[in-house]
Description:
By secondary structure, the chain is mostly beta strands. The protein has one helix at 21-26, and strands at 2-4, 9-12, 16-18, 36-44, 48-49, 57-62, 68-75, 80-81, 87-94, 107-109. The strands form three sheets. Strands 3-4-9-6-7 form a five-stranded mixed beta sheet.
Amino acid sequence: MISNKSRGFIISRKFLACTTNWSKARGLMFRKPQSLVMKFKKPVRVSLHMIFVFFSIDLAFLNRDYKVIELKRNFRPFSFYMPKTKASLLIETPAGNLKTTQIGDILSIEKNSGDAGKSENSF
């Protein structure tokens, strides 16, 4: 579950954890609308594209303390985005899920219930 601790609401009850280079590169391409979380070994500035993603999404870039350091709302299909800052985590979620999230908010990312044995959700 992804929640906004600063404002007290749930952003997404479930998410897909992208832990491999392949899953990070694929992202939401050819997938149905859902939330993804990518965790990086060190802060990075990742160039993003929406090629073969057929719905708009919101992006939250977090530092290692899960603080929102950059937001991109309504990232549209077949477009590109280069973040201004390096981030330790990236959340991709269907457009509108981050409408009340602000820079400086602290987010919480917890394993999906029932996924205790899956390393894909080890956040």
